[in-house]
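Annex B, item 7. Sequence and structure tokens for protein A, then protein B.
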Amino acid sequence: MEVEARARSCWLLLSLCLKCALAADWSVQVPASPVCAVVGSAVVLPCSFDFPQSSDRSGATGGPPAQDDGGEVRQYNVLAEMWCLGNSRCVTPKYVFHSAGILPHPSYQGRVEYFGQPGTKNCSLKISDVRQSDSGTYVFYLITDHPTEKMPEQSGVQLLVAESSGAVTVAAGPSSRVAEGETLRLACCSPAAGPQAGYTWFQSTGVGPRRRAQVWDISRVTSADSGGYVCQIQSGDAAQNSTVLTIDVEYSPRSTAISVSPAGDGLPFTLTCSSDANPPVHTYAWYRGAACLPSADKSSHPARRSKAVPAGVGRTQGAVSAEEYGEHCCVARNRHGSQTHTVTLQSPRATTPPGSSESRLVPIGVGVGVFLLVVVAAVCLITSICIELFSPRRFWDLQRYHPKWDGSKEVIENTCPDPTGTMELGLSSPLYQV
């Protein structure tokens, strides 16, 4: 009884281990460091893989199937194994090897040998008579009959080919031409370099070493990463440099602007659009009016096009003639994207439209201003006259020429207020008649 229980436990444990092995995750093991070879030699790219070979009846994979006596386990098989150059899923017409009978690229025919056999999970590849053009990133990819799951993207392994055993060679992956924001890998090797060799990277636009490693991964590259790179290998007291590896980081149009000439009033105007892009903009598309709205579908509007000409490092420009006022916009585009800039041409006569509230307020404001000026001038004139009338000299003149005047005041019509508030004297008073 005890022996039977132990045997059953061992069988359950063995079944669980087997099911866990069958339900493995997707994986490809290749060297993390670049593989170095000499022109004319043979090189092996070591490789092994694994994949989910089964799932339970619920369709779950990546873990052990459900432990249900009545459960069904579905087995998955390999349909195709392949090697390609520089594509993370091997969606390319340029195969290095394909197990489904697809012929390799002509440059590899008769030079490759695949070591994989059914059930071995060995995916190693041998390349004979290595050429300089064989340098690059090699990717292994697997296709199974699973209805939904696919192998994830693969980074691959870099192969660097040197002209001689003592030469230093460098390579960029996935390519020396990369789009802004992507990841760039720089690799350096020499067939003669030992395990104790030191690697140092220099950039032509910088001062001093930039990275001390055989492989330099640059994430989210920018235009500042463009330029030349040199790898130096230090073996003991000897140092040897590679040739210059030129990196070109491409980006969509930016700093797009429109200049208007002449600066004065009057049609027509010349509109010049300029932009910084890599690769450069070849043609500028021009629109006007509603087509310049951010929400507008420019494909449904007619466009004028102007050929771009060089206008400095990385910049181009194109010009058109504008014979209408309103909004005008230009679209700068290359294979990585586009950028739009808008300018408004406004007629001098349209700055204050006739009949607007602003135009009606102008004459009203002028009239009110003139009226206030007249009132102020009249007040000033009357005040000056009254001050003159009631000055001490004027009273002295009255007493001199009218000795009978006793200094009393008479209030008659057309009087002036006394600034001192002590008396009022009429302008037509007999006392004022001299």
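Protein B:
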Amino acid sequence: MVVKKLKVIDDKELKKLKTESKSCIVINDLIYDVSSFYEHPGGYDLFKEYEGLDATDAFNSIGHSENAKNLMNSFLIGIKKNSKEYKKKEKTKIIENKIEYINYSDEEIKKEEKEPKESKPKESKHKENKPTLIKKEDKTNYPAVAGIIILFGVAYYFLFLK
């Protein structure tokens, strides 16, 4: 069993991280730094929308593979102060140099992912209510689109350039 020492992060510190150009989201009361994950499909706009906020519902509404969930552990940086998870582990907190930490095992993290936290749905800040974070599947037929572009290019060449 691998135990991680998670920093306890309150709302004030979450805002401070934002000013340090770090993009953090909250999923199941755990805080993830997704700054380096902006290249993910649909990442930048949607991660920006939930920056510093609880993205649990958005994350759980989309099907993620086990590999994706395991990858999340590498982005885990802390636990939200005064959250349900924090209160469960509060008695085990450690204070070093005025910074509060809580030990959290990989098994507890996986258990949290399997038992989604219930909360009220959050409306999107975007004009249209599109699915949050990542779509389950992209229905664009890329080979057909590429073929049409090539066809137009060939037609343009023969009609106007030759």
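Comment on protein B: Residues 124-128 have pLDDT under 50 and may be disordered.
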